[in-house]
Amino acid sequence: MLLGVNIDHIATLREARKINDPDPLEAVFIAKRAGADQITLHLREDRRHMHDSDIKRIRESSFLPLNVECSINPQIIDFLLEVAPHRITLVPENRAEVTTEGGLDVIGNFDRIAEITQSFRGKGIEVSLFIDTQLDQICASKEVGAQMIEIHTGAYANLHLMLNSNLPRTHHSIESLNLPKEELKVALRDSIESLQNAAKEAKWLGLEVAAGHGLNYVNLAPVLSIVEIGELNIGQSIIARAIFSGLENAIKEMAKLIKG
Ligand code: PXP
After folding, report:
1. Cα angle at 29 between 78 and 19, to 5 degrees?
2. Measured from the CB, is residue 132 less than 6 Å from ligand 1?
3. Ligand 1 in contact with 236 (CB < 6 A)?
């Protein structure tokens, strides 16, 4: 199983001050040393984290394949055709969302996605589509000419959080999942089954299969056991863990400079 590390949130932290630190490019070298197989990032229409110049610098300097997530917005597509990352992953995008909320509607945007796919594949750039587990969307992904799908694991991750963490007791509790434990357990089992079926169907159709969104250190095991999935793209949980596993060293270094 390959690991794509999504480094968007390094840029999120940089944008909190609008300076040049932390630099996502530095994370690329650390990710390579740490065993990542790919760098994944999302060029959002509102440029809330990654900017065009980040994509260019990372494309030029990275020793790892670069997978850029993007919407079907014409300006972004033209820019990425020029930059030519190793892969693009088309995702739905909604300005007001905190993160990508659902999968791409391939059926509803069939002609546009087919056109984009053809342009990128014509330049030797892989195309992946970020979709939910519906089988008709998987078939459409094949018909549209994509080589790969990335299955959205967000619904599974949300159920896992509501069942196995303190999220329901925080202000970020997911209202629609405020259900009795037994119901959550059934829904969680169903969501794993949907992931399994989607991965099987896609592989059977000849698509490569990735998965991602909301995956973390405690919810990974059922996804890892799906043999058809060849790659996981993980971001927020890695960056969140890095804040705590690296914070002690950062404070020690500063204290040493101050106190000698
Ligand atoms: N894959 C896709 C297509 C995404 O949109 C995201 C979030 O940007 C991820 C993977 C990574 O999700 P997370 O940050 O929750 O691990």
Report:
1. 65
2. no
3. yes
3-state secondary structure of 128: strand
SS3 252: helix
Domain locations in the chain as residue ranges: 2-259
As a whole number of angstroms, the distance between CA 229 and CA 253 comes to 41
Ligand 1 pocket test, pick from 2, 67, 99, 161 with the greatest ligand atom count within 8 Å of Cβ, gives 99
The CATH number given to 2-259 is 3.20.20.70
172 assigned binding-site residue: no
Q: What spatial distance separates the first Cα and last Cα of the chain, rounded to whole Å?
A: 45
**What parts of the chain have a pLDDT lower than 70?**
none
Q: What is the predicted pLDDT for the residue at 248? A: 86
Give one word for 121, left, alpha or beta, with left for phi > 0 and alpha for psi -120 to 50: alpha
Count the neighbouring beta carbons within 10 Å of the beta carbon of residue 175.
Answer: 5
